[in-house]
UniProtKB/TrEMBL annotation, chain A:
The lineage of its organism: Bacteria, Bacillati, Bacillota, Bacilli, Bacillales. Part of the ABC transporter complex PstSACB involved in phosphate import. Responsible for energy coupling to the transport system. Residues 14-262 form the ABC transporter domain. It is a peripheral membrane protein. This is Phosphate ABC transporter ATP-binding protein. It is found in: Cell inner membrane. PANTHER family: ABC TRANSPORTER I FAMILY MEMBER 17. Its main location: membrane. GO terms for biological process: phosphate ion transmembrane transport. CDD domains: ABC_PstB_phosphate_transporter. The keyword ATP-binding applies. NCBIfam families: 3a0107s01c2. GO terms for cellular component: plasma membrane.
From TrEMBL, chain B:
Belongs to the binding-protein-dependent transport system permease family. CysTW subfamily. It is a multi-pass membrane protein. The gene is pstA. GO terms for molecular function: phosphate transmembrane transporter activity. One of its GO terms (cellular component) is plasma membrane. Its main location: membrane. It holds the Pfam family BPD_transp_1. Coiled coil: none annotated. This is Phosphate transport system permease protein PstA. It is found in: Cell membrane. Residues 75-281 form the ABC transmembrane type-1 domain. PROSITE patterns: ABC_TM1 (PS50928).
Amino acid sequence: MMEKVLEKASSMNNQSSNIVYNTQQLNLWYGNHHALKNIDLEIKENEVTAIIGPSGCGKSTYIKTLNRMVELVPTVKTSGKILYRERNIFDADYGVEELRTKVGMVFQKPNPFPKSIYDNIAYGPRIHGIKNKKILDEIVEKSLRGAAIWDEVKDRLNTNAYSLSGGQQQRICIARCLAIEPDVILMDEPTSALDPISTLKVEELIQELKEDYSIIIVTHNMQQAARISDKTAFFLNGEVVEFDNTDVIFSTPEDKRTEDYISGRFG
Amino acid sequence: MKYIDHNSVVKRMNSRLIVNRILKTLFFLATLFALLTIAVLFYRIITQGVGYLTPEFFQNFGSRFPAKAGVKAALVGSIWLMCVVAPVSLILGVGTAIYLEEYAKKNKLNDFIRMNISNLSGVPSVVFGLLGLTIFVRALSLGNSILAAGFTMSLLILPVIIVAAQEAIRAVPKEVREASYGMGATKWQTITKVVLPSAIPGILTGAILALSRAIGETAPLIVIGVPVIIQFLPENLLSQFTALPMQIYDWAKRPQLEFQNVAAAGILVLMMFLIIMNSIAVFIRNKFQKRY
């Protein structure tokens, strides 16, 4: 009896130390379509977790569930738990707004607002009530530096963000996400609309960001997952087939289906 | 085996090109017809009315004598009317559109409401006049005042503004809303900071059309009982008044020929009023115009 309690206590301790997201038996339906089936995943702090899998396997759905953006689709139903820092994000008293200030998101297509670069970055801090111009200036500079784009835009902070190239726009979106000082950054195929050089820049940026943030990235590009991630989860038909260290997944996967996928036999 | 025989395609090419040319000519004639009609209309009105467009025309009240008749009361009345119609219809219309597009759930009841708002814009204006007479003039005892007429006109153009605003709101890309929600913005913050700034040009375009309709509409005013000849300016929103289309209608139906020319001058004033209103709206629209 005593042992059990101790065991529980120590496992709790372990969890709180470095697990950011603990997904337990997550199921998700779009209407009648069962999109995610019994997902169990533990995502650790200051790591890059890549989610790979063929189109329609549920990887984007999963990442959008982590900040509950998936609920913008009206027919979505979920069951199970996602513990973010030990608190279930589906709890009735857990507001999505609160969750999303801690969990930032970068989308597939660069989606800056049709505003100036400055206003794009300052958007998040402003909606959370920061009005002091000096503080906003500092946040803007810090975020743009964090997204490695400060030198390219520092002289034209007041120009429209749409005047930038696609790759720059995506880094502006990353900077905008950093401006709310999140704990986790979710990235939904952030480089799929970018050219190879911009992709490289974003990948390098991700490597730098993981020092301070936990990053979960969905990618179609397996080389990308291999290059930048610490852990990789392979999704297929709404299930997690395999989740392990990236080098294990790409060298000695346990499951035949993972091997088939990464060796390009399907998907 | 080839399915396309290029020789026969070339042979038939000529007749295809001829059909294309004929239709192009037909469509051009259709455009020309519309333009000609407008040109004739303008020519007639300007030649008839321009002689009466004197400073006195703007300073005089209505009169039995064509030479002394003026639009002062009607012009001021129309301005007062717009001061009621523009804010009331814009606030109600944009508010409804925001609710329907952003907050309302997609269900049968809301689909039904959406469909019927579009249908409402097809209801004849006389019917709105009767509605105004029953509710604003009689039930709320506002009489044939600026307020009663303004509310009636607002109801008349509300569907047009709602539909235009809904379309403008719907045209805002989903991605920028997601970006806003993704940072923890509430729905209202997203609406005021992202959706409305992008939708304002579209909303204003619809509002211009709707207000232009309200300013030229006569039937509801007749039904409400707005008088034609008024020898004083309105003092507040509950004053009696008359409006430009009422005045023009009155002049046009008088037997004296000279009054036809006075009516033409009145129409010119109405058109100038419209052009000024439209340019203000276009100015605001261009200020907000942003590209994606």
